[in-house]
Amino acid sequence: MALAIGIWSLKLTPGKVETFQPPADLKITNVALGDVLKDASGRTTVKLTFEPSGVLDDEDEDEVPKTVTTVLCSLKPDTLEQTSVNLILQEDETYKFELAGKNTVYLTGNYIEQAVNNPPFDDDDSDLDSEEDAYDLREVSSDVEMHPDDLDDLESDASRFEEVEEAPKNLKRAREADEEAEKPSKAEKKKKQKTEVAQPADATPEAKKKKEKEPSKEKGTPNDKEEKSKGIEKEIAGGIKILDAKVGTGPLAKKGNTVRVRYIGKLTNGKIFDKNVKGKPLAFQLGKGEVIKGWDEGVVGMQVGGERKLTIPPAMGYGSQAIDKIPKNSTLVFEVKLLEIKQ
Fold first, then answer.
1. In what order do the strands lie in the sheet with 105-113?
2. 292 in active site
3. 95, 111, 121, 263: which one is catalytic?
4. Contact between residue 319 and residue 234 where contact means Cβ atoms under 8 Å apart
5. Phi/psi of residue 333, nearest 5 degrees
6. Residue 307: how many CB atoms within 10 A of its CB?
7. Cβ pair 26, 89 in contact under 8 A
8. Is the preceding peptide bond at 77 cis, omega within 30 degrees of 0?
9. Are 247 and 338 in contact (CB under 8 A)?
10. Could you tell me the sign of the dihedral formed by the alpha carbons of 223, 225, 228, 229, in that order?
11. 5 catalytically annotated
12. Nearest-CA neighbor of 98 among 31, 199, 6, 19?
């Protein structure tokens, strides 16, 4: 993908060859006639001369010209005064522009950054239109290898099991004999029933035990607290919404850390526009602008093994720009799984 990072323009004058060497990758998007026309009816053609790229065999090298000249476009007043193009000029390569005609022409475009793993795109987009149910982050391998030194701290399998003595085979019969001995007589049963009627329900030993076992409704159990922390969607800076589907373990990711993640990117209509669920995970440094703002803010606070849903508004994504399969002013939804944190 290509991310626009700055505007660029160049004025072409008739009879003058403009030699240009971009300081960074550049994308030309528009070619237009100037506001003052010297020839109100004539055509002006924009020519581009460049060095062809590619690796050639030694036997064919002499037959290929060192430079190639092509026509970028032709403009004519009142007929075609501007046109949109999609031409990328590579950094530090030499290009020459010249005009055939009498009118001045302006080239406009953007300096771009062509990052390999800058979300929401990577190189593997062959099956982006597949069903969203086909990808489940819980089934994705983390690809994180354990260092051999860390294995020393693990307990052996033998130490994690306790030996259980086999119960005697005649246990059932022994219990039956004890029960027979403990059975109360009829007189004792009647006396016990009268005592229970006189006592309030909460005063019986059975009621006391039951009351002790019941958890306090006000305090809640640890599992209840954990479920509440997982299932609540929160809104953070920039209008980003986060929802932890699974809470990980270990230290929290913070700005300045380098993290490795898997992710699936969708539009609000459920259409998948990008993913990284296999191969090399995406690695980037939090808070350094290597990814969109929604990621720099939304991944903060995750733990290794955690899974989080990010709902990113346009202002924290790509704004009014239309990027390939993403329409302008789109709200983006990402399912992110954190694999590793490096300090």
1. 3-12, 105-113, 26-33, 82-89
2. yes
3. 263
4. no
5. -120, 125
6. 20
7. yes
8. no
9. no
10. negative
11. no
12. 19
Residue 274 falls in the annotated catalytic set: yes
Return the DSSP state at 32: E
HEC string of 79-110 equals: CECEEEEEEEECCCCCEEEEEECCCCEEEEEE
Q: Which of 112, 292, 312, 326 is catalytic?
A: 292
Residue with tokens 């069903």: 131
Kindly report the pTM of this predicted structure: 0.38
- Give the total residue count for the chain: 343
- The one-digit pLDDT tens for each residue of the chain (343 residues) are 578 778 999 999 999 999 988 988 889 999 999 999 999 899 999 999 998 875 444 445 555 568 899 999 999 999 999 999 999 998 888 999 999 999 999 999 998 887 644 455 444 444 555 445 555 666 555 554 555 555 555 444 445 445 555 544 444 454 554 555 555 566 666 666 655 544 554 555 555 555 555 544 444 444 544 444 457 999 998 899 999 999 999 999 999 999 999 999 999 999 999 999 999 999 999 999 999 999 999 999 999 999 999 999 999 999 998 888 899 999 999 999 999 999 8
273 given a catalytic annotation: yes
Burial of 209 (0-12, 13-18, 19+ CB in 10 A): exposed
284 tagged catalytic: no
- Respond yes or no: is residue 112 known to be catalytic: no
User: H helices of the chain, where?
Assistant: 171-182, 186-198, 205-213, 222-231, 293-298
Joined together, the tokens standing for residue 26 give 């550049």
Query: What are the backbone angles phi and psi of residue 145, rounded to the nearest 5°?
Result: -90, 145
Query: In 3-state terms, what secondary structure has residue 243?
Result: strand
How far CA 81 is from CA of 40, 93, 271, in Å, comes to 11, 29, 38
Q: Tell me how far apart the alpha carbons of residues 10 and 54 are, in angstroms, rounded to a whole number.
A: 27
The CB-side HSE value for 228 (13 A sphere, CA atoms) comes to 6
